[in-house]
Design brief:
GO molecular function: structural constituent of ribosome
Protein name: Ribosomal protein L5
Order of helices and strands: HHHHHHEHEEHHEHHEH
Number of strands: 5
Radius of gyration: 38 Å
CATH class of one domain: Alpha Beta
Oligomer: single chain
Keywords: Ribonucleoprotein, Ribosomal protein
Structural class: alpha+beta
Largest sheet: 5 strands, antiparallel
Pfam families: Ribosomal_L5 (PF00281), Ribosomal_L5_C (PF00673)
Distance between the termini: 104 Å
Helix content: 25-40%
CATH superfamily of one domain: Ribosomal protein L5
Number of helices: 12
CATH architecture of one domain: 2-Layer Sandwich
Strand order of the largest sheet: 2-3-1-5-4
GO biological process, one term: translation
Length: 374
């Protein structure tokens, strides 16, 4: 009765040794486990079952909790004959970059052990998402230049002057710049491909506080306004020289600067495009020259002058424009109206020409007027 009350699997185990091993009436009663089958009749086992284990990890006597409690790191350290090198305990990347041939190289910025590691980005702003999904592919499409196979590339003139080899010291020397003290060497406009699509790198907001020459309160109000608008603590700049005609004294704080990168830069540009620019009355767009309402038609035919020929675009906000920022408008009573300053905005892009930079900002929504002539 005791065997009948057991499950069928346990009854088989209990009766395994009692059953005859010989063949009865042409039928074999032997039942093997995997280990017994391999030991008793290895020639009958297929190669597919050679790698099977006889026991599973579910029935092992090992207990991880017992080994964890018995582990003593101090005792293990004291049992060592010598200490491990300091590099095994702590790693700090080199503080300074000493060149590509130095034996100690800093890890990349994406490595958490790097001194310059910045976690994120965890999310993209609305403008940056639009850039990644729509604007960047559109810029590649607009600037694509198809060159059929066999097209002969016309060689361009050298931007730098070569040496005439009149002296043995000219050998191996780099090429020289253009002639003349005032002539500067412009950047080459590179063709846009998937590696160098123009994007916003940094936004700088600068304000020169003329009233700070007589009263420092102007500087404090301007600092609070720029910090609320940009979200960055402004940097104070002092005068380097004394100018009696302007009442400027050396060492006197006269200007403020805020630098924004990454998400803050895109947020500021998005704020200008969607909240501030549409509310400026009688404003045709960004242009480097001053204009009057009656001269708009005339100014539309002039060339754009907002760039610096290196891919950086600037514009400015007067006192009336600075008031339109939502951070200032909601707390307008906090700022004395006569002390609110204007400021300049410089958008630094990775483009190498004003044409590409203006194309990027136009795609983002910045309004331009005037014809751009390179």
């Amino acid at each position: 009765m005791a065997l009948r009350e057991l499950p069928s699997s346990l009854r088989r185990l209990a009766l395994r040794d009692t059953r005859p091993t010989a063949a009865v009436a042409g039928r074999s009663w032997r039942r093997y486990t995997s280990a017994e089958a391999v030991a008793a009749a290895p020639q009958e086992v297929s190669e597919d079952f050679q790698d099977l284990e006889s026991n599973t990890s579910m029935f092992t006597a090992f207990s991880p909790d017992d080994e964890t409690k018995a582990y003593d790191p101090i005792k293990r350290t004291q049992g060592r004959r010598r200490e491990l090198p300091p590099s095994r305990y702590q790693y700090r990347s080199p503080r300074y970059y000493r060149g590509p041939l130095h034996p100690h190289q800093p890890p990349p910025k994406s490595d958490p052990s790097s001194r310059e590691f910045v976690p994120g980005p965890f999310s993209y702003t609305r403008l940056e998402q639009t850039y990644q999904s729509t604007i960047a592919p559109d810029l590649m499409t607009l600037t694509y230049v198809h060159k059929p196979p066999g097209t002969v590339t016309v060689p361009k003139a050298d931007r730098l002057r070569t040496w005439d080899d009149s002296s043995p010291y000219h050998k191996g020397r780099p090429k020289r710049g253009p002639r003349g003290p005032g002539d500067t060497l412009r950047l080459i406009e590179q063709d846009i491909n998937w590696r160098n699509i123009p994007k916003i790198e940094e936004v700088t907001v600068h304000s020169f506080i003329k009233g700070a020459l007589d009263d420092s309160a102007h500087l404090h109000v301007a600092g609070m306004l720029l910090q609320s608008v940009t979200g960055v603590r402004p940097t104070i700049h002092k005068a380097k020289h004394t100018e009696g005609r302007w009442g400027l004294r050396k060492g006197l704080p006269v200007s403020l600067t805020c630098n924004m990168r990454g998400e803050q830069a895109y947020n500021f540009v998005d704020k200008c495009i969607n909240l501030v620019f549409p509310r400026i009355k009688d404003w045709p767009g960004i242009e480097g020259k001053q204009w009057l309402p009656r001269e708009i038609d005339k100014m539309l035919m002039q060339q754009g002058t907002t760039g610096d020929s290196s891919g950086n675009i600037s514009w400015g906000f007067s006192r009336e424009g600075a008031i339109l920022f939502p951070e200032v408008e909601i707390n307008y009573d906090m700022y004395p109206p006569k002390l609110i300053p204007g400021f300049h905005v410089t958008v630094k892009t990775t483009a190498t020409s004003d044409r590409h930079a203006r194309m990027l900002l136009s795609a983002l929504g910045v309004p331009f007027y005037g014809k751009l002539v390179d």
